[in-house]
Design goal:
alpha/beta; 30% helix; 19 strands; eight-stranded mixed beta sheet; disordered C terminus; disordered N terminus
Length: 377
């Protein structure tokens, strides 16, 4: 690790853009050693920036994970454990909300003079979560990636000289996978003959339930087809990162803006018998990419130490140059980082996992009793 004082100064920048790619598991990026060239744009950023090889989300689904990336707290600390439950026949929903007492990275930046905007297409991130605190612009359902990029373009144009923080959450790697034909063909398949071309989100949910109950199976060719559609979706979305860079160049802020690329969680492909996410804390569901590129830094590095995304907000503040006390650790300085600890609440059970060297230790709790599972390599 380079000397912390020089390293921090080199990386400090005015603007920060946090790109969270939903369901993006780290081992499906080519810069993480994947066999398919899924992420040429992100690979370029990683070669000229920083990459954490073992970054872990704090949960395996969006809402608790994002709450940690905004607050610097683990799920049991910030209390955002459950998703929205619609009230029958009445307006509104019942849901866990990020408490006002919890720290929020956008509030910290706004209070220090930054302009903050968030652009999503995910119902798990609507205003009822309390995640909107501190953002001058908060657009939770603003459309797909092209519309999100248009809105970011328009938003930056309003005050390009003022330092800004943008959080954009991209959904194109979440099922149902809708890649371009050319990207599927790039990986040796055909979108038109894929079993999953016309699958809806409900179709995927039914398939997951059927696999869990044993009523359905996926053949080797079906699994290959499913993974290919996912990989092609990743390749399609990677090209949008390049468009984001072009927007920054257009407004003359490219040299003053750090890009942080990560994910809220991963995705399972029968690694442990299921597909999707949000029902386990296995590595494939929690191991996420973390790449930081700042044009002002002149060093590159890859870090192999297990790292928690609970340290992301403190790191974002460091990148922006905002000297604000905040929970967690600064990954740029690289010392005393938080443990790669994950938590998941399902029904009346609570799951915890932590990476310890080459081991993954899991613990499940049911009501008032606990049971330790066997550590898995």
């Amino acid at each position: 690790m380079p000397a912390s004082s020089d390293w921090t100064r080199d990386l400090t920048t005015r603007n920060v853009i946090l790109v969270v790619i939903d369901c993006l598991r780290a081992d499906h990026l080519s810069c993480y050693g994947y066999g398919r060239e899924t992420t040429p744009t992100i690979d370029h950023l990683a070669r000229h920036g920083l990459l954490w090889e073992q970054a872990y989300s704090t949960c395996s689904w969006t809402k608790p994970s994002v709450a940690s990336m905004l607050s610097g707290l683990f799920p049991s600390e910030h209390g955002v454990l459950k998703g929205p439950k619609r009230t029958r026949g009445r307006d509104g929903s019942l849901t866990d909300v990020l408490p006002d007492s919890a720290p929020h990275v956008a509030e910290a930046l706004t209070g220090s003079g930054w302009r903050c905007g968030a652009f999503f297409n995910n119902v798990q991130l609507e205003r009822y979560t309390g995640f909107h605190r501190g953002f001058h612009t908060y657009a939770p359902i603003c459309g797909k990636v092209d519309r999100q990029l248009e809105m970011i373009d328009e938003w930056i144009a309003l005050e390009p000289s003022k330092p800004f923080f943008v959080y954009v959450h991209l959904m194109e790697t979440h099922w149902p996978y809708k890649p371009r034909r050319r990207h599927v063909e790039m990986f040796g398949g055909s979108r038109d003959t894929s079993r999953f071309e016309n699958f809806s989100a409900l179709d995927f949910a039914r398939l997951r339930r059927s696999l869990k109950s044993g009523e359905a199976t996926l053949s080797e060719s079906d699994l290959d087809d499913l993974v290919r559609m996912y990989d092609a979706s990743v390749r399609r979305l990677d090209g949008k990162i390049k468009i984001l860079q072009e927007i920054l160049e257009k407004h003359g802020v490219c040299d003053d803006t750090a890009l942080v690329i990560t994910a809220d969680h991963g995705e399972e492909f029968l690694d442990h018998g299921s597909i999707g996410h949000g029902h386990s804390l296995h590595v494939e569901a929690t191991h996420v990419p973390l790449v930081i590129f700042s044009p002002q830094q002149d060093r590159t590095a890859r870090y192999s130490e297990p790292t928690s995304m609970v340290d992301l907000p403190r790191t974002l503040l460091s990148l922006a140059g905002a000297n604000v006390p905040f929970p967690g650790c600064d990954l740029i300085q690289g010392s005393n980082t938080s443990p790669p600890y994950c938590e998941l609440s399902i029904g009346r059970s609570f799951h915890r996992a932590i990476a310890v060297e080459r081991w993954r230790l899991h613990r499940h709790a049911w009501l008032d009793s606990e049971c330790d599972s066997t550590p898995m390599d």
